[in-house]
Write a structure and sequence with these properties.
The structure holds two protein chains of two kinds. By secondary structure, chain A is mostly helical. Chain A contains five helices and two strands; from the N terminus they run H-H-H-H-E-E-H. Chain B starts with a strand and ends with a helix. The chains are: A mainly alpha, B alpha+beta.
Chain lengths: 112, 154
C-alpha cells in the first residue's frame, strides 16, 4: 500500500483523527465539521485536503455543497492506527518487565 | 501480574495502568535513563531507537528517534515539565512525521503496591471526540485481524 505513509502522516494530527471520527458517524459538510473543532473553515478545508490526498476521505457533489464522507481506506486506517497504539503499548511494557528483571539485585529476592 | 488496563477519565483523558514486579525507583529509572529507555520504548517488533536523549529535569529535553531497519523512521521531541523522583513525571511530547503533531500532555505516576509498582499513565487528548473514537473503535479489545493486516501492508 503505497499510500500508507500518507495515511499515517494524515493521522498524526489529532484534529484530523477527530475529523475522521466525526465522519465515521456520517457524512458532513465543511461547515458542520468546523463547528465542534472551533476552527475556521479554511483550516478544516486544509485538513480535509490532507485526508483526501491520503485517500481517507472522499467528497460528493450536491448542488453547492461538497459533503465529505469516510472512504473505506479511512475506516481501515483508523482501525490500524488504534491497533498499533494498543499493540505498541503492550509490547513496550512486556519489554519493560524484562528490563526491570535485569535491573534487580539477584541475591536476597523473594521468590514470586 | 495484572495486565494493562485502559479507561477513560473525565472528558479528555485516557488512563493506562500497568503493574510491574519492581519497586517504583526502578520503574521510574527505566522511564528516565536513556540507556534503559532504549531497551523497551520501541513499539512494534523490529523497531530500534538509535538516538535517545532524556534530560530528566524540569525543562530538560526529550528526543527519541526510531528506525525499523527498512529505511523508515520517525522521531519524537518533548520537554520534561515536572519530576518527582521515583513517583511522578509530567512531560509534553510531539511526533514528527516530519511535521510536528500538536503537543500531547502526559502524566506518569509510579505508586508502590507491596514490593511492586502500579504505574498510571494519563494522556490528555485534544478532544472528547477523539477519545470516544479511540475507545469505541475497540482499543480495549483484541486486534488480531488489524495487526495481521498491518504486517501485510509493511
Amino acid at each position: 500500500m503505497s499510500n500508507l505513509d500518507a495515511a499515517f502522516s494524515a493521522l498524526a494530527d489529532p484534529t484530523r483523527r477527530a475529523i475522521l471520527s466525526r465522519l465515521a458517524q456520517g457524512e458532513a459538510t465543511v461547515m458542520e465539521l468546523a463547528k465542534p473543532f472551533q476552527l475556521s473553515q479554511p483550516a478544516i478545508s486544509q485538513h480535509l485536503k490532507v485526508l483526501e490526498s491520503a485517500g481517507l476521505v472522499v467528497r460528493r457533489i450536491e448542488g453547492a455543497k461538497r459533503p465529505r464522507r469516510l472512504a473505506k481506506a479511512g475506516v481501515e486506517t483508523i482501525d490500524l492506527w488504534l491497533s498499533m497504539l494498543r499493540e505498541a503499548l503492550d509490547k513496550n511494557y512486556d519489554r519493560l518487565d524484562e528490563v526491570l528483571a535485569e535491573m534487580k539485585p539477584r541475591k536476597g529476592r523473594r521468590i514470586r | 501480574m495484572s495486565k494493562m488496563t485502559l479507561k477513560t477519565e473525565g472528558d479528555r483523558y485516557v488512563v493506562v495502568t500497568r503493574q510491574f514486579a519492581a519497586p517504583p525507583e526502578a520503574v521510574y529509572r527505566a522511564h528516565t535513563d536513556p540507556k534503559l529507555i532504549q531497551k523497551w520504548l520501541l513499539g512494534p517488533d523490529g523497531w530500534t531507537m538509535p538516538v535517545c536523549i532524556s534530560d530528566a529535569r524540569p525543562g530538560g529535553k526529550i528526543r527519541y528517534e526510531w528506525m525499523n531497519g527498512k529505511g523508515h523512521g520517525f522521531h519524537l521531541t518533548g520537554e520534561y515539565l515536572e519530576l518527582e523522583p521515583c513517583s511522578r513525571i509530567v512531560h509534553v511530547e510531539r511526533m514528527h512525521f516530519p511535521d510536528p503533531t500538536p503537543d500531547n500532555h502526559v502524566e506518569t505516576r509510579f505508586d508502590p503496591d507491596g514490593a511492586d509498582t502500579l504505574m498510571t499513565l494519563r494522556m490528555t487528548l485534544p478532544s472528547a471526540e477523539v477519545r470516544t473514537a479511540m475507545l469505541s473503535s475497540g482499543m480495549e479489545h483484541g486486534m488480531e485481524a488489524s495487526y495481521a493486516r498491518l504486517e501485510q501492508l509493511i
